[in-house]
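Technical note accompanying the year-one report. For the benefit of new consortium partners, we illustrate the data format agreed upon in the data management plan: each record pairs a sequence with a structure-token string. No post-processing was applied to the example shown here.
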Amino acid sequence: MGIGRLSDGLALTPPMGWNSWNRFGVKIDERLVLETAEAMVSSGMREAGYRYVVIDDGWMAPKRDRSGDFVADPEKFPSGIKDLADRIHALDLRFGIYTDAGTKTCQDLPASLGYEFRDARRFAEWGVDYVKVDWCHTEGMGPRALYAKWAMALHAARRPIVLSICEWGRARPWEWAGRIGHLWRTCWDIQPEWSSILTILDRQAELHPYAGPDHWNDPDMLEVGNGELTSDQSRAHFALWSILAAPLMAGNDLRTMSDEVREILTAPEIVAIDQDAAGRQGRRVRHEGDVDIWIRTLGANGDCAIAVLNRGPVAREDHIVLEEIGVAPRTNVRVRDLWKRIDVGEVQRGIVIATSPNSATVLGLNPQ
């Protein structure tokens, strides 16, 4: 677990769910959220491990009530947040909400500075299971102190609530946030573009020592199914986030997604990498030109997943010496293609891996 890390069991594996922001921004209402929750069930996503339905910025009324409590926007959420949470819980899902640590949210709505204990209590009364705390309008404030206050407030509210810290990696949260929160953003907001995914990925390369059960690096939500990403780019994005032991928070419209997008998000052997109980974040072992090789050790018996990422515009073949990724010489290694879910044979010493442009080949290696 590491010294001084959270170990409360609320996020033993990286949280999986859906967040409204990437596709809908502030254009959210209770009907959209309920339809999304229902789609999470009917699409098989709940069965695949997705649990949290999280509403992001834009749910609050422009002012608090007379006693200082948050109020949901009555036009968007006429039934109120507690009713929404109850209906999501009735689907065997969990409910998440958003606030900001500063004076206003990123969309200039009421935020939580000075109201942390009141807001945490309110969230607990509503049945909230997950809180994302953003970092807009915090000039001159220290994130360590403010997020520690949030952790105390949630503890005092006496409801198990996952704390998602979102200060965009500015104050190196991987070095301190694991003592107070379950996940912390390591970077700026992701965009549904290949260049954004690669730039964020590069920022994760040295962060693997800081993650583990109940404390996860968060390279931001998924863009699978958004923008102009190709299916190969979406698969690569999803696979690399799984190698990173990243929270898998879908950000697309679950109600209208294609079968292809659904199959990416629910790919069982890729999700299994992300949710591996040992909780060891993957690391990059080679970065040459357009090719990255990432490896994640799984379980306790020497198994691992390897992702060969082709960042460039042309197909490639790459040779990997197994010693390079920690396999002892003359060991027989069973190889499995985790996207195709087929065994591809046994190798010794090395393996040749073909990749299409802008894609990742993902293999499971099982030393015998």
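Partners are asked to follow this layout when depositing records. The chain is about 25% helix and 25% strand.
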